[in-house]
Design goal:
With 307 residues, the protein is mainly alpha-helical. It is built from 12 helices and 3 strands, in the order αααααααβββααααα. Helices cover 51% and strands 4% of the residues. It starts with 9 loop residues before the first helix and ends in an 8-residue tail after the last helix.
Length: 307
């Protein structure tokens, strides 16, 4: 792992940690895998920040946790990840790799904080599959929810999305977020395909003047309201037999969570969600567009579900 920017002999250290968890901590293979999976998130952070196990400081850890919080990772998941990192650094101290533990003062978040629930990949699939494509608005609703999940948009960004802002060849959508700030977000081939199918139906809608370029239209030829999107999601969630309280924001949090669990870079996720800065003093750097697209294609589960 010394060649990928973390630490000389890093792979060997992680292997020793794995043995430590299995033999000295007497953890089950599944628990060991869970610890290592959470440790991978820190390793990716180290690489992105050009840090090592040894140079990581408490301030860096605060930044890491702030990034988890910013993209909407549930406090329980944050607490689990922090616990795993603390365990790893205790091991580094015990084995003499370090003389000080930067995680010593790191606190877990308060579990009482209420965040929207996160859908599993299977639940997202079930909601999308519950849409009756023979109905008049079926193709629109399918395309709309695909875009919501594939791009992690806010509902306000979804209902104002314009056809001209979908770059089919390049695989991006241009989104106008809070404060009229624009950003380019990668979009999966699956979502683009669903948009193209919906457009075949859209040409039959009598569009009201001034809304010709709005992508997702009501049957009256006007933009969909935020309330209507909430209603559609609630209806499809019930049809899918899912008991969770699902809203457009649930799709946004699921987008971020699935990308993180799939191995995507924290900063890339923040950039795609339109966050202006980390909740620390450091402003994060600009991220290359092709890198963003690569993060989506490699790590977003919907990119792998081809019709």
């Amino acid at each position: 792992m010394g060649t990928n920017g973390t630490i000389s002999g890093g792979k060997e250290i992680v292997n020793k940690y794995k043995i430590y968890l299995r033999l000295e901590k007497s953890l089950s293979p599944n628990s060991v895998d869970a610890y290592l999976h959470d440790l991978e998130k820190l390793l990716r952070f180290l690489i992105s920040e050009n840090l090592t196990f040894e140079t990581l400081t408490y301030d860096h850890l605060q930044q890491f946790v702030a990034q988890l919080r910013d993209i909407g990772i549930h406090p329980r998941s944050q607490a689990r990840i922090i616990s795993g990192i603390k365990s790893f650094y205790r091991f580094l101290l015990l084995d003499g790799y370090l003389t000080q533990d930067p995680t010593e003062l790191l606190e877990s978040p308060k579990i009482g904080v209420k965040l929207p629930e996160v859908l599993t990949e299977e639940e997202v699939n079930a909601i999308l599959d519950s849409i009756d494509l023979s109905q008049k608005e079926g193709r629109r609703n399918r395309a709309m929810l695909e875009v919501l999940y594939s791009c992690g948009l806010r509902v306000s960004e979804l209902v104002t999305l314009r056809y001209a802002d979908v770059y089919f060849e390049e695989g991006f959508v241009k989104v106008e977020g809070k404060g009229s700030k624009q950003r380019l977000v990668p979009i999966s081939e699956t979502a683009l395909h669903e948009i193209q199918l919906y457009l075949l139906d859209r040409v039959h809608i009598q569009v009201k003047k001034g809304f010709e370029d709005i992508l997702f239209l009501s049957r009256r030829g006007t933009p969909l309201s935020r309330i209507m999107v909430f209603h559609i999601i609630k209806q499809q969630t019930e049809l899918a037999g899912i008991q969770k309280n699902v809203s457009p924001h649930t799709f946004r949090h699921s987008f971020a969570t699935h990308l993180l669990e799939g191995g995507a870079n924290l900063r890339a996720i923040q950039e795609m969600m339109g966050h202006e800065k980390i909740t620390t003093t450091e402003i994060y750097t600009h991220i290359d567009r092709e890198f963003l697209r690569k993060e989506i294609l490699e790590h977003h589960p919907r990119s792998k579900w081809k019709d």
